[in-house]
Amino acid sequence: xxxxxxxxxxxxxxxxxxxxxxxxxxxxxxxxxxxxxxxxxxxxxxxxxxxxxxxxxxxxxxxxxxxxxxxxxxxxxxxxxxxxxxxxxxxxxxxxxxxxxxxxxxxxxxxxxxxxxxxxxxxxxxxxxxxxxxxxxxxxxxxxxxxxxxxxxxxxxxxxxxxxxxxxxxxxxxxxxxxxxxxxxxxxxxxxxxxxxxxxxxxxxxxxxxxxxxxxxxxxxxxxxxxxxxxxxxxxxxxxxxxxxxxxxxxxxxxxxxxxxxxxxxxxxxxxxxxxxxxxxxxxxxxxxxxxxxxxxxxxxxxxxxxxxxxxxxxxxxxxxxxxxxxxxxxxxxxxxxxxxxxxxxxxxxxxxxxxxxxxxxxxxxxxxxxxxxxxxxxxxxxxxxxxxxxxxxxxxxxxxxxxxxxxxxxxxxxxxxxxxxxxxxxxxxxxxxxxxxxxxxxxxxxxxxxxxxxxxxxxxxxxxxxxxxxxxxxxxxxxxxxxxxxxxxxxxxxxxxxxxxxxxxxxxxxxxxxxxxxxxxxxxxxxxxxxxxxxxxxxxxxxxxxxxxxxxxxxxxxxxxxxxxxxxxxxxxxxxxxxxxxxxxxxxxxxxxxxxxxxxxxxxxxxxxxxxxxxxxxxxxxxxxxxxx
Length: 630
Ligand code: URQ
Ligand code: ZN
Ligand code: ZN
What we know:
alpha/beta; 7-stranded parallel β-sheet; 22 helices; binds (2S)-3-(carbamoylamino)-2-methylpropanoic acid
């Protein structure tokens, strides 16, 4: 549609016009595909100024005048703008960054506003953008599209990328330097989606826990992650009670030096003192830690009480850091454990029985209330049951910023696993909270579909069978934790996207974008956009495999998803612009992962600061010598 049409006052229905332009865009792309890819490019912007001018009147100065007048005539205006008409430097990221809607979408169905054409096509195409659209629409279509990915080693220039349309609305994404530089590799991603690399914000590599140490270290754990399309982990530094947070942090940084993917750290608060308060400040200000985890379970070890929660949450508010909780009532778990052992239940089934949904629901509700009283947002890790999910949904409906993280294990595996006759099989699945019944699984899926739960993680904390055997006579001594990092994305795609519970874009939100936003990594991570890290996954929705410990990269001999058929796999993973997983092979160098600092005070905290200030308690001014009541 042209600006004139828009101004004429009789535009076609918005959806129809948008569809027409988008169809034309596809035709153009397909034409490009037939013509190959050869050299300098020309940029077009498909600019949708939906209500943008009302939201940002200054935008009028940055957009071409005809777009402005068309947009004024029709707030839903959608038009094609040529590069020459775009403002100075014509960085679409800059231009569109000014719009109140994002220039890119965090999804697999990438909506982007750029079309890249080689000169051969450019020559034939009418100069007028409106005519160009019509011209393109008249060209015969070809469904198969080949697209080029110019991958630069240093990771700063991003990629020109494209995935087959799969009948998506628009599916082109282009990096800032589009011409493939000499020697650059061109990746043919036909038939695949291109996704931002996965982020797993809940892992425990090399974690000293329950008398042993998790078997995947930062090398094997992050390598396994890359093979599954996860290009960044946020692990936990967990200093013990009385230990300095800074000492713990230094220790974990040292352990993490061998990581092959990017990584970052949350820090756990396991006790309270002035020193802890002080060190939290140092971690945020100087070490890129912006989230603090609190265990409400693991009595006599990591557990903290309400007093510590309130102190720490309040400190988090001052620092602009996000408090997180492992929500299980550790006192009740402890009593139930004792009762079960006394009743002669010593096997792994006792683990699940000692941690019923009530203990999680109670703790989730309590943590939410404490966060509300402290005026901070809250992130609840491994949300596994209906009670906890409903507490989160209720709080959100009440205007509280509470985020919920189901694990891929809880979404797909159920409590019957603990009744397996093979002790080692059942013990391998011991984790906290335990797997739940199908009713709870449904609640978690519903939360992901509806948006009341935001992030799918793994809590990857892998132990070998010999380590699990520490609890052969007493389930309370079985080290808690399972693997999952290399299967998270494939299992979620299989059970989420292939079943229609999630769109591809919702899949990206749950596996990458939401974590990036919540933990203040966005838009460095979690999106394909100019300036973002070139962590990318070529995702083949048709690729299949049967999950098996025999072929996994994780350093243990079991896999909780053993035998599961998945459809949808990462066929190529890029980390920092480098191909690290391809043809089922890892190409990684020990230590090439970077520690990614995360600054405090994400936008949410700015907003909450204002809210808190507006609600600041004020005393009543009284003059004791004057009685106002009769
Ligand atoms: O509770 C956790 O998050 C850690 C310590 C790993 N283990 C587990 O069972 N979830
Ligand atoms: Zn936990
Ligand atoms: Zn954990």
